Amino acid sequence: MTTTALTRLTQLVTNDPSLGEGPLGLIQDAAVVIDGDRIAWVGPSSKAPATDNAVDASGRSALPGFVDSHSHLVFGGDRTQEFNARMSGRAYEAGGIRTTVAATRAATDEQLSANVAHYLAEALRQGTTTFETKSGYGLTVEDEARALRIAGEHTDEVTYLGAHIVSPDYADDPAGYVDLVTGPMLDACAPHARWIDVFCEKGAFDGDQARAILTAGKRRGLLPRIHANQLSYGPGVQLGVELDAASADHCTHLTDADVDALANSATVATLLPGAEFSTRATWPDARRLLDAGATVALSTDCNPGSSFTSSMPFCIALAVRDMRMTPDEAVWAATAGGAQALRRTDVGRITPGARADLTLLDAPSHVHLAYRPGVPLVSGVWRKGVRVA
Ligand SMILES: [Zn+2]
């Protein structure tokens, strides 16, 4: 196998405290050796072993490829007008999802797949090398299974979200829709997904419904995650912790008991600042979660309605500026935190044996991701050892 070294990196984020300084395991004047699809060696540039190829990365820094653990990319249509209206003073409601459901049902397989490929390529150019994505805009047995099949052509991290909203076809029979989601739809979808998710929120699914949905999914071997406490206080976070969800996502409205529950569990609090940005909503209090000892991840929530960004650097900048995370915490949350939210140990770190996913910045430090917001600093991306951008 071919070996490649990135040498003379001004700074390297490993996310392994045993390899360098602080929680990020920072190494100054560093080198990384890639062997095939794996990281083979990291350390000071002066001690790097000989390799087949070398990239002189002087003046630049590297960090693990971003792990975006929450997106909704299998969709048709566009919601420019809704965004424009909202920015002109109208409040966001979960019902906007119905617009995308109609457009998604009307789209061909080819159109949906091309759309996923388009946004994945966009994310990759911005340094994202692991991507989760969900169904949730089909809301029929056939359309949900189709969405998962298409998602699975592009990523291994596929989530069944038949319980995004109650299907408009069941507007007068939400209990009947829960039966569908936990019955025939689950049967059709479980073979194509790793995860099950539910939007636990007023106007979507209440605590009892969410519990029934996640429990049914677990019985079929799917791992739970949950959209929790985004628009209001509610039972979502506690339910996620109770069911050992890998992640409770949004966490914008939390009681002290919710924060305690997260801090004393293996459930990651995944914060999605793109959603608050794009809906002019209250920011989640990352500082409160971190100070309590909860594990925090950052993700884009990329979707056409409430957060149409694929940019993890943008989310890092928001988290630092508006959610009181330090640059180190935000970078950890966007890499190792995301990996933990997907219960992965092979990504989100640059350590020997890890998958060779690496983002090179045209900047001397990862701090520049927040210090220089909106600037395209990503100058190279390696995924599974292959330079892809
Ligand atoms: Zn979401």
UniProtKB/TrEMBL annotation:
Pfam families in the cross-refs = Amidohydro_1
Q: Which domain of life is it from?
A: Bacteria
Please give the chief subcellular localization of this protein: cytoplasm
Please state the Enzyme Commission number of this protein: 3.5.2.7
Q: Where does Fe(3+) bind?
A: H70, H72, H227, D301
Domain Amidohydrolase-related as annotated: residue spans: 248-383
Catalytic activity reads: 4-imidazolone-5-propanoate + H2O = N-formimidoyl-L-glutamate
Residues bound to 4-imidazolone-5-propanoate are R79, Y137, H164, Q230, S306
Q: Which UniProt keywords apply?
A: Cytoplasm, Histidine metabolism, Hydrolase, Iron, Metal-binding, Zinc
- Statement: the UniProt record of this protein carries the keyword Zinc: yes
Q: Which residues span the membrane?
A: none
Please share the entry's free-text remark on the cofactor.
Answer: Binds 1 zinc or iron ion per subunit.
User: Is Thylakoid tagged as a keyword?
Assistant: no
List the GO molecular function terms.
imidazolonepropionase activity
| Residue sites binding N-formimidoyl-L-glutamate per the record | Y137, N303, G305
Q: Which SUPFAM superfamilies match?
A: Composite domain of metallo-dependent hydrolases, Metallo-dependent hydrolases
* Pathway the protein contributes to: Amino-acid degradation; L-histidine degradation into L-glutamate; N-formimidoyl-L-glutamate from L-histidine: step 3/3
**Required co-factor?**
Zn(2+); Fe(3+)
Instruction: Please state where this protein is localized.
Output: Cytoplasm
Q: Which PANTHER family does the record cross-reference, listed alphabetically?
A: IMIDAZOLONEPROPIONASE, IMIDAZOLONEPROPIONASE-RELATED
Q: What is this protein called?
A: Imidazolonepropionase
Naturally occurring in which organism (per UniProt): Streptomyces catenulae
Encoded by which gene?
Answer: hutI
